[in-house]
Design a protein that fits this description.
By secondary structure, this protein is mainly alpha-helical. It has one domain. The termini are far apart.
């Protein structure tokens, strides 16, 4: 079992670093999470990842 996830990011620290590397390699404009994110999680992930972090439910709700 890996390190526990952080309630601030919904992911473990290592997974956040992995996502950030993958986003950089793919030159991603945003990161979309299937799980719902709280406003705090969105802000924290956006800051860490350097690009908007949004949940799929937020995207679907705007249509």
């Amino acid at each position: 079992m890996g390190l526990p996830y952080s309630s601030r990011t919904l992911l473990s620290y290592g997974k956040v670093r992995e996502v950030a590397r993958t986003c950089d390699q793919a030159d991603a404009d945003a990161v979309i999470f299937v799980a719902s994110l709280t406003e705090r999680q969105q802000r924290t992930l956006t800051d860490i990842l350097g690009r908007p972090a949004v949940s799929l439910s937020d995207i679907l709700a705007t249509d």
